[in-house]
Specification:
Blueprint: H1 2-22, H2 30-39, E1 44-50, H3 55-64, H4 68-77, E2 78-84, E3 91-93, E4 96-98, E5 100-101, E6 108-109, H5 110-115, E7 124-128, E8 134-139, H6 144-155, H7 164-170
Parallel strand pairs: 1-2
Antiparallel strand pairs: 1-7, 3-4, 5-6, 7-8
């Protein structure tokens, strides 16, 4: 009986571990995402623009992106991209090459500037179409529930037929 219980426990642990691994976010590089877009896809793109020193970026990684509902929705509806706003490597996007500029605390990647539409605030997330075109950047930290509401607005293409104000009014108040 003890062996049977031990075997069941081991099997259950293995199943829950493999399920958790299946649900982990496999972040793409910007270049990999651009390649996917070039080949064609039915999913939209989501870019997390961050820096290594950003505490709110780390909090969003740990709490928001690890929330099971957020993670499941994002994996089903978006290609997930991480972009370090201070990465040194040049990136070519839509025929233009973007580089790291500045020095010290004023260092930023020109692509981060372009994606965030000039608002270099971290974290900033960028929602993009299936064709890798910017829909909207969104600056700041968001807890799981409000983030998921925003992600659904873009992911479910509600923005095509409804203003953000109308969508927000349609949401049930959360307590």
């Amino acid at each position: 009986m003890k062996r049977l219980l031990l075997l069941l426990l081991v099997m259950a642990t293995g199943l829950s571990t493999s399920h958790a691994q299946e649900q982990s976010i496999k972040w793409l590089s910007f270049e990999d995402a651009a390649e996917i877009a070039e080949k064609g896809t039915t999913k939209k793109f989501f870019i997390d623009v961050y820096t290594d020193w950003c505490g709110w970026c780390k909090k969003m990684d740990k709490e928001t992106f690890n929330d099971p509902k957020v993670r499941a929705y994002m994996l089903a509806n978006y290609h997930m991209v991480k972009f370090n706003a201070e990465q040194p490597a040049p990136i070519t996007y839509k025929g233009e090459t973007y580089n790291l500029v500045g020095s010290g605390r004023s260092t930023y990647h020109e692509l981060a500037y372009a994606l965030t539409q000039g608002n270099l605030s971290y974290p900033t997330v960028v929602f993009m179409t299936e064709k890798f075109e910017v829909l909207s950047p969104l600056a700041g930290y968001y807890p799981a529930t409000p983030f998921l509401q925003i992600a659904r607005y873009f992911g479910d293409s509600l923005f095509e037929n409804m203003t953000w104000k109308d969508y927000e009014a349609s949401l049930k108040p959360t307590k």
